[in-house]
Amino acid sequence: MQRFVFGAVLATSALASGIPADERAELVADLAAWREKFGADAAANGLLPKAPGGVHEEASDLLLSRLRAAKARLPALRAANPDATFSVLTPFALLSHDEFKARLGRSFGKVQPKRALRVEDVDFASLEGVAAAGSVDWTTGKCVNAVKDQGQCGSCWTFSATGAAESAHCLATGTLLNLSEQQLVSCDATDGDGCNGGWEDKALTWISSHGQCLTKDYPYTSGTSGQNGTCKKTCKAQKLSIGTTVEIAGEGPLTTALNTQPVTVAVEAGNDVWQYYGGGVVTACPGAQSDHAVIAVGYGSASGKNYFKVRNSWGASWGEAGYIRLQRGVGGKGMCNVAEQPAYPKIVKQ
């Protein structure tokens, strides 16, 4: 295996050495800009391709070749998504497509059965009129915490569920808590396997039943270790003002739910769109299976395009300060599957 990888690096090095001088100079400048913005976090989160031997020149050529390959993918993305921007100045730019997809693949559980809409929990009145006329953005209020970073742990499901619970509790009580994702990673073995993925909607039920500790009492460590950790039961769980979990499906019900609170959603993110996203409204996604859990925090319109605003858990340096906008009004499962399986906890007013 080592000889194979070493040979691959030598081949890559030769490829990089064959880059025309002017293009190479541009790539060197791009790589320097990438290192300045993402280098430290990328090293901590396992986002650098591994070169054996630690020879500086070989490693540099490998990175230049990766950057060149990434830049070659951008024109097709821009053509398919004229209302969005894409760039190699993203945290994941030096990962190959397969590496990025594999990283997402461990974050999510098995395919769930197709959801039946819970009609009694959804207000269907004037859905299209409300969606077209208005906008909602929960990030402009006081009930959404700053964007977090799951690091090199497939724990997106815990960030999605925790964020929805934090917001629901805040809307019920007026107090925004910073709850512990690590507690779910280490302790909720019913709804997931920590860094190996889980169910964000099912985790909401666990949170409602058990309560959740504060981050300061149970800090997040799996992002750097990549390990689930041992469940600790010494912290004090907060009693939260949330009730049963409501599972819905479709863009209309998602829009209606967002009029009340942020909503957990599953999306298809293991693709070039999410790997190189810089900003704007995404209007084309490949159409594969969902592989990532996030939080829908609002909807609106920009330059004639309706969108859902989604909060990610890849840090604030990704996308629009940690957020992405997905076209709204495409029907079916929604853009990047955003409307396929939303869920939210009922707000219990005190």
Descriptive account of the structure:
Keywords: Hydrolase, Protease, Signal, Zymogen. This is Cysteine protease family C01A. GO terms for molecular function: cysteine-type peptidase activity. Pfam families: Peptidase_C1. Belongs to the peptidase C1 family. The structure is a single chain. By secondary structure, the chain is α+β, with helices and mostly antiparallel strands. It has a domain at 101-149 and 247-347: Cathepsin B, Chain A (Alpha-Beta Complex). It has helices spanning 2-17, 21-44, 56-80, 97-105, 127-133, 156-173, 181-187, 200-210, 222-225, 251-258, 272-276; strands at residues 84-86, 136-137, 242-247, 263-267, 277-282, 292-302, 305-311, 323-327, 343-347. The strands form two sheets. Strands 1, 2, 4, 5, 6, 7 and 8 form a seven-stranded mixed sheet that branches. The protein has a two-stranded antiparallel sheet with strand order 3-9. Strand 6 (292-302) and strand 7 (305-311) form a beta hairpin. The longest helix has 25 residues, at 56-80. The radius of gyration is 21 Å and the shape is globular. The N and C termini lie far apart (60 Å). Mean pLDDT is 87; it is low at 1-15 and 115-133.
